[in-house]
Amino acid sequence: MSALLEVAGLTVRLPVGGEPRTVLSDVSLRVGEGEAVGLVGESGSGKSMTARSIARLLPPGAHAEGSIRYRGTDVLALRRQALREFRSEVAVVFQDPRAHINPLRTIGDFLTEALRVNRRVRRREAEERAVRVLDEVGVADGRRRLRQYPHELSGGLLQRVMIAGALLSAPCLLLADEPTTALDVTTQAEVMAILDELRRERGLALLFITHDLELAAAVCDRTVVMYAGRVMETQASSSLHDLPLHPYTAALGAARPSLERRTDRLPTTPGRPLSAFEAPAGCAFGTRCPHVAERCRAVRPRLRPLAGGEVACVRAEELLAAPVGDGRSRDEEGTVAGGD
User: Fold this and answer.
1) Which candidate, 113, 92, 237, places its Cα nearest to that of 173?
2) CA dihedral 316, 317, 323, 329 (to 10 degrees)
3) Which of 18, 136, 165, 176 has the fewest CB atoms within 10 Å, counting from its CB?
4) Which residues 6+ apart lie within 8 Å of 228 measured at CB?
5) Burial profile 80-98: b = 16 or more Cβ within 10 angstroms, e = fewer
6) Is the dihedral of CA 244, 196, 52, 31 positive or negative?
7) Phi and psi dihedrals of 133, rounded to 5?
8) How distant is the alpha carbon of residue 92 from its chain centre?
9) Under a CB-based contact definition with an 8 Å cutoff, are residues 93 and 99 in contact?
10) Which residues of the chain have pLDDT under 70?
11) What DSSP character marks residue 329?
12) pLDDT in tens, 174-197
């Protein structure tokens, strides 16, 4: 599968109190043509900042190093018209639509502005396109919706409007930043079903940011796990739960409730999540990891291939071969899935 998006060694620093603070450190990932990739991790792990870096939506004073390439083009070097064209091919669905849709303007203004300004599409034609896309995302009576204001729509409808706005420019890559977090469970399922169906129909690539490992496994081909602004693991989503390569991924999976096992208390990971600028010199997860060794603290692990995926852990081979309950090793179970 050819790479549509390639991020290599991305490091981002933001000014905080007059001092630069690292929020992303050496992030590397890729998204292929038509591929869905999940980006998971705790709050503060750098997921949203990664998406904003890709879309060139960093705040003033931010400094980015490394490489972001879209179809081979250096995204960090784009200016003016080239940047506008890039953003028409790479669209963003934000987490909270009420914070990203101007409450003083109509839904029609929000949906058609980019087409009218960047593509020079006449208002009537832009509105016709908007009505068609609203119907695709499950919003009925589109013409009336165009005249409404954001406060007149429910959270679920407004998130559908946000998705419609992203799709109107016919993008090739969709960056979805936790698009269902503020919705109830039923509406979440409806929105995700719409997003997944439209992605497959249009052949869109997707970078899907979520806290939910199982949701990522359901809609994504591969999953990238982040912690403290670093990538800990990349693996096929179908293998991530049964065969985590990194102790952090294993901890995330163990902390999830399951209908298949009975337990009085879910396991928790001691300590608190770290920001990238707080991470120690060695492994960022070393302060919380039950398998930490001296060499984990001494050397920062680099992302490297293992068992069809990639992992940043110096003890990954040892842990992969460790017994798992019935005396067999994970390798012996034969559950290692092929990667990319």
Assistant:
1) 92
2) 130
3) 18
4) 25, 45, 46, 273, 274, 275, 276, 278, 279, 284, 285
5) eeeeeebbbebbbbbbbbe
6) positive
7) -70, -35
8) 11
9) no
10) 1, 259, 261, 323-340
11) B
12) 999 988 877 788 888 888 888 888
How far is it, in rounded angstroms, from Cα 108 to Cα 123?
A: 10
Written as six digits, the tokens of 235 are 């693996």
Provide CB contacts within 8 A for 50, sequence distance 6+: 7, 10, 24, 27, 29, 39, 226
**What does the block give as tokens for 164?**
């419609």
**Residues 6 or more apart whose Cβ sits within 8 Å of residue 279:** 25, 228, 229, 230
Two tokens, residue 1: 């599968």
Amino acid making up residue 278: E
Q: Which H helix or E strand runs over 304? A: strand 304-306
Token readout for 234 is 């990349």
Q: Within a 10 A sphere around the Cβ of 233, how many other Cβ atoms?
A: 26
Which of 314, 313, 331 has its CA nearest to residue 322?
Answer: 331
Do the Cβ atoms of 211 and 178 come closer than 8 Å?
A: yes
- The predicted-structure confidence for 146-176, as pLDDT tens digits, reads as follows 999 999 999 889 989 999 999 998 899 999 9
